[in-house]
């Protein structure tokens, strides 16, 4: 499991589902246009948006964008620590910087200090194309060199006592992207941001991203993803969602219905629902499944007749039901694991259908 | 390395590049329409085509299709051994059967005997959806069960002395497809035909296939692929090619130019060109690279000025050149490996550019 960070209210790493990112391509000064694009991205299923802050004049509009954005905003900064400091002051929920081009270690330390103060995570990454010369050694695979470079950068942050990092390793070579991320996954516990650079046209980019990001997700690697396309960013979200669905991490496959809890509720239902939802995120289910979690036996199976499957708690016991009929009685503590097993069985049945 | 089989002239397994398959969706009796579709598939980059033979009446048109097809033709047979026998008699370059539904072991043996006689390989496979009951055991992952079922089927063929097999393990669950093929790859040396079943709409199917097939190819698994889409089969080829390109197995990244050989030629150039082409197929190269292989030093670097890189042989020695300039002198036997190294270096440079 990876360290948990938060970009605004969106958790990355830990038990959090893989989140989807994109980046606006509107003009840095166009507040309304950018906000409109962010709303479209959110409606499409985007969780976090990145907005470039290319110059000082962009800081004022950036502040207005962050203040009204429908999604947490990460400032994308290059070459100028003052822009990173400015974006953090203006409310950025995170920053993405290239520690190698920010203007030296003192300026980098200032950015780290302010990010820590603002509780904003920092994404640092290595792109194969801009790998520093000193890491290009004969006999060293470039994927290894990328990770070596990244870990040196990470150490600098750790030495400042800063750990709210998110890492990225990108190459336009899909195999290299996969190799570098596999190595990084084994090498440290920071959440990984997956993407393939210069992924190209919509079609080529979608396929290249699906291969690269999909392979890593299938291996259980990756905490947040961005599909880069030379296309409307909303299309990036569509591809990202389809990649997640392909590896069984799609959204909304399992709908949870739970009772509002009342005096009859014999268990602390809310943490049970949370536990279930957290664990169910990693479950694959073809199509949709409605799952009911009921706090007592009275309205359990009956009230949740529409649910495909569910559990009704009754003091120390729980009833598992399916299509309104009780199929098992178990101890309350076993209820969630047994329900998850039942869902896995149903998924297998649905596969066969 | 996997056992080498041939479907017509197309080699699968061994050193052969990953081939692309598709399946016609024209009416079984529509000879001209089917041939037209096969020509379109070939033009798009398809290597092998599958044609269903659903009933006895389809055998006569099938024969005319095979006789005039631009691509080797595999007969897709279900439920009736007589159709498999008929298709083999009519010239099928291979057959795809489901040993479990062909009408019993004696009929299966007859098909195997005739396929051996006709030197036609057989593809057998297991689809998660039709896994026989006896392999569905609690505690056994379905991917393992699929492989267990397949290996039992393989044994039946081996017991008849038949080894020209191609295997497939498909599921509509991408993770399961990948898991089953990884296990099969470790379990036997028959070439693997990769695909994701019921991959769905063009968009969803392309992404699902890219994740599943792409992951396996990145792991060095898979000898021939089919992208299944609910779409014009030509679109399957487009997606297949893009998947191959994404994992560095794209076609035409490296163009080989070689001299026609003459009296000055001091080496047996043709097998060297073949060796180079065979090995270069597994090389990744971003964009296009023109490689010249010249039989003597006279017209070597000079004549191949347009080539990005090349080698000119001179008796026991060889000159490696780049953009018309000699960059190394090596023994003739080292020439191809050194040329491949040089191309790998150029690929790395091109990546950085």
How would you describe this protein?
The structure is a homodimer of 353-residue chains. Chain A is an alpha/beta fold and 353 residues long. Chain A folds into 2 domains: 5-246, TIM Barrel (Alpha-Beta Barrel), CATH 3.20.20; 253-352, Sulfite Reductase Hemoprotein, domain 1 (2-Layer Sandwich), CATH 3.30.413. The first copy, chain A, has helices at residues 31-44, 59-68, 81-89, 105-117, 142-159, 174-187, 202-218, 233-246, 269-280, 300-303, 335-352, and strands spanning 5-7, 10-12, 19-23, 48-52, 73-76, 94-96, 122-127, 165-170, 192-194, 224-226, 254-258, 289-294, 309-314, 317-322, 325-331. In chain A, the strands form 3 sheets. Chain A has an 8-stranded parallel beta barrel with strand order 3-4-5-6-7-8-9-10, surrounded by 6 helices. Chain A has a 5-stranded mixed beta sheet with strand order 11-12-13-14-15. In chain A, strands 1-2 form a two-stranded antiparallel sheet. The longest helix of chain A is centred in the middle third of the chain and has 18 residues, at 142-159. Chain A is globular, with a radius of gyration of 23 Å. The relative contact order of chain A is 0.09. The A-B interface holds A 128-129, 131, 142, 171-176, 178, 203-204, 206-208, 210-212, 214-215, 217-218, 238-239, 242-243, 245-248, 284, 286, 348, 351-352 and B 128-129, 131, 142, 171-175, 178, 203-204, 206-208, 210-212, 214-215, 217-218, 238-239, 242-243, 245-248, 284, 286, 348, 351-352.
């Amino acid at each position: 499991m990876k360290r948990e960070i938060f970009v605004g209210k969106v958790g990355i790493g830990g038990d959090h589902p893989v989140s989807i990112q994109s980046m606006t391509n509107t003009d840095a000064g166009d507040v309304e246009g950018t906000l409109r694009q962010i709303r479209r991205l959110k409606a499409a299923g985007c969780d976090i948006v990145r907005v470039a802050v290319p110059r000082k004049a962009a800081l004022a509009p950036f502040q207005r964008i962050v203040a009204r954005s429908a999604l947490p905003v990460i400032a994308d900064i290059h070459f100028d620590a003052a822009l990173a400091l400015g974006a953090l002051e203006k409310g950025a929920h995170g920053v993405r910087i290239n520690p190698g081009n920010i203007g030296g270690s003192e300026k980098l330390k200032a950015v780290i200090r302010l990010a820590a103060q603002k509780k904003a995570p920092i994404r640092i990454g290595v792109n194969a194309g801009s790998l520093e010369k000193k890491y290009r050694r004969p006999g060293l695979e470039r994927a290894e060199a990328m990770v070596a470079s990244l870990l040196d950068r990470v150490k600098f942050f750790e030495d400042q006592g800063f750990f709210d990092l998110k890492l990225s390793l990108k190459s336009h070579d899909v195999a290299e992207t996969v190799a570098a991320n596999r190595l990084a996954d084994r090498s440290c516990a920071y959440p990984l941001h997956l993407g393939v650079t210069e992924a190209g046209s919509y079609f080529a980019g979608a396929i290249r991203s699906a291969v690269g990001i999909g392979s890593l997700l299938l291996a259980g690697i990756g905490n947040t993803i961005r599909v880069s396309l030379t296309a409307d960013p909303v299309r990036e979200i569509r591809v990202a969602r389809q990649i997640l669905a392909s590896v069984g991490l799609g959204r909304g496959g399992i709908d949870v219905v739970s009772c509002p809890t009342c005096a009859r509720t014999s268990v602390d239902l809310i943490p049970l629902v949370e536990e279930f939802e957290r664990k169910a995120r990693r479950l694959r289910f073809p199509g949709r499944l409605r799952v009911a979690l009921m706090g007592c036996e009275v309205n359990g199976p009956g009230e949740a007749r529409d649910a495909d499957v569910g559990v009704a708690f009754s003091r120390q016991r729980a009833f598992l039901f399916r299509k309104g009929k009780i199929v098992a009685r178990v101890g309350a503590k076993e209820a969630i694991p047994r329900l998850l097993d039942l869902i896995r069985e149903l998924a297998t049945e649905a596969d066969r259908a």
